[in-house]
Amino acid sequence: MHDQMVFVAAVTVLGVLEQAYFSLQVIYARRKYSVSPPCITGPPEFERVFRAQANCSEYFPIFIAILWVSGLYFNQAAASLCGLLYLYGRYQYFRGYSKSAQGRLAPLYFSAKMLWVLIGLSSAGVINYMCQLYLEVDFLRYLKQLIGL
Amino acid sequence: MHDQMVFVAAVTVLGVLEQAYFSLQVIYARRKYSVSPPCITGPPEFERVFRAQANCSEYFPIFIAILWVSGLYFNQAAASLCGLLYLYGRYQYFRGYSKSAQGRLAPLYFSAKMLWVLIGLSSAGVINYMCQLYLEVDFLRYLKQLIGL
Amino acid sequence: MHDQMVFVAAVTVLGVLEQAYFSLQVIYARRKYSVSPPCITGPPEFERVFRAQANCSEYFPIFIAILWVSGLYFNQAAASLCGLLYLYGRYQYFRGYSKSAQGRLAPLYFSAKMLWVLIGLSSAGVINYMCQLYLEVDFLRYLKQLIGL
Q: Is residue A9 left, alpha or beta, with left meaning phi > 0 and alpha meaning psi from -120 to 50?
């Protein structure tokens, strides 16, 4: 399992570093706009940074769960690549949202698309694995043979 | 490990799909009640949907962590079954909370109970595994023999 | 993998129990200060408890992800120890924040430090593993030999 998941583990560490970066930005925004904890309301500039980080945090566990299931049951390389693109989309989302509510939309749609790709990969992987285990059919191998991989 | 966890992985994918469904409901509620991001306050109808999704998101990582530990150290079938019941309870909770603050209570207690069962299973599994490893005693096997499994 | 991760799994179960404890404290605070859901604003005493739990929940998935990667790719004992210290720091943070906004700072810095140690361990573990796999160099073993382990 270790060999098979090392790139997924690397993407996980990168994701954690990204979340740490977002959290630091909220701390800087709290200082800049003088919003002391536990208060979470303030000027729109602060609220946008706060909500951007809250939204990324909310999706983080969903991302990690689906990333690992994709890596375990579909394919490590595909899962890691989608994971990297998702993290890139989230970075653009955070920067965009910090500037304006409008600026969050394009990267939000992009990172949502990456999540859907990961959901697709993991569903395909899990269903195929069950078919292999109980029906002794391996659709993914047929597909790979078909496209000559 | 793959064979042993495929149902837990399937429940994980279902859980991610459920969270995606809840997130879409918040987007619809934002449009319906004209609450633009980053604002998170509005009419009680909106705030209930928003809080229902926030509460489910908050418990999602706890659920996934305990589900996988139960599957790995106790038993895949028991973990997956409790996981499915938990997700069903969360769906009822979301629907109930969307209608009234009162409507969230019964399914909330049900899904909390399922979480406690998973905490119990994973604690039993981890403690038994440690006893096996260091004391060479396997309580769970004795128990299974006792009830004739 | 089971033997290698049993202490990490035990720390995970402890972390889930800690989150359950924090959630119960929010329910008690809601009753004490008469703040009914979906409302999340109220007297500062309530808001501090609410924010303390929200902050711990936000970091929980980050903590679990980095704990498991550290355990899988660096070393179980080191990961579990840092994990225990992190959970202890979070408990102190919750108690401190419940009393005053100032009281959250020292344990917050402590638990943040533990997270950074875990990020360091997992990065070292993953990079070393990749070097082993593709460059056939094992830095961590050299280091262990150097310090006579």
A: alpha
